[in-house]
Design brief:
The chain has 241 residues and is α/β, with parallel strands linked by helices. The protein has 8 helices and 9 strands.
Length: 241
């Protein structure tokens, strides 16, 4: 559906956390092409996590056009946005959002339980468990016990990589990554970004990688600063971004 449309279109998108509050985001225009890998720099409080929440359909814009993979998110009900996110998006949350008492294997394969589309793509790649183990291995998590270990038992860096495997499984069309390398050392960070780009290229997925670390920009097709896109001044907003 809509395979020739951009991966992401924002046109006059505005957002405030409550009626009458200052705008957190006021973006005149931004487009992300299918398969493109873009780095978006944003300082703390600039609205970057809010922006990802809008693109993921967790938040609804106060106005403007917001299309993701050819779908107009403001036209969908909250329930339809949830289904769309599960089927079409891979999200690496800043706080990981793993289920702490589930084993690693169950956390990685969770999107395939909620989305028949992603489960089918994983089966085409060799099977849901096989694909999950492949991603974990590529991310350096290939010890014998990792599959059955609870997420809560992992280090922060390991949890971050499990969250990445969960986002990638099933070949979603758009990957949203919110500070996904914050817990990794320099060598692990560069390897992680290379892997993320390779997996996105293999499935022609677009990647929007958001970080405060401008030194990572050279890894991507294009780099932008959120302050260049956002006419609102998040530092003056009363609600946190």
């Amino acid at each position: 559906m809509h395979e020739t449309s951009p991966a992401l279109v924002l046109d006059q998108v505005r957002f405030a956390y409550r009626r009458g509050a200052p705008l957190v985001l006021d973006i005149a225009g931004f487009t992300l092409a299918r398969g493109e890998r873009v780095f978006l720099k944003g300082a703390s409080g600039s609205g970057k996590s809010t922006l990802l929440g809008l693109i993921a359909g967790v938040l609804a814009p106060g106005g403007g056009r917001l299309e993701v993979l050819g779908e107009s998110l403001p036209d969908l009900t909250p329930q339809a946005r949830d289904r769309f996110r599960a089927a079409r998006l891979g999200v690496i949350f800043q706080m990981f959002n793993l289920l702490p008492y589930l084993p690693v294997g169950a956390n990685v394969t969770l999107p395939c339980r909620f989305s028949a589309t992603r489960a089918a793509k994983a089966r085409e790649a060799g099977g849901v468990e096989t694909e999950a183990r492949r991603l974990l291995s590529r991310l350096g998590l290939d010890t014998d016990d990792i599959w059955t270990r609870r997420a809560a038992e992992l280090s922060v860096g390991q949890q971050q990589r499990v969250a990445a495997a969960r986002a990638l499984i099933g070949g979603p069309g758009l990957i949203l990554a919110d500070e996904p390398t914050s817990a990794l050392d320099a060598d692990s960070r560069d390897s992680f970004i290379a892997l993320l780009k390779e997996e996105c290229e293999a499935s022609n997925a677009a990647l929007l990688f958001v970080s405060h670390d401008g030194g990572l920009a050279g890894h991507f097709d294009r780099a932008l600063d959120l302050s260049e896109l956002n006419a609102a001044r998040a530092s003056t907003a009363k609600a946190p971004a």
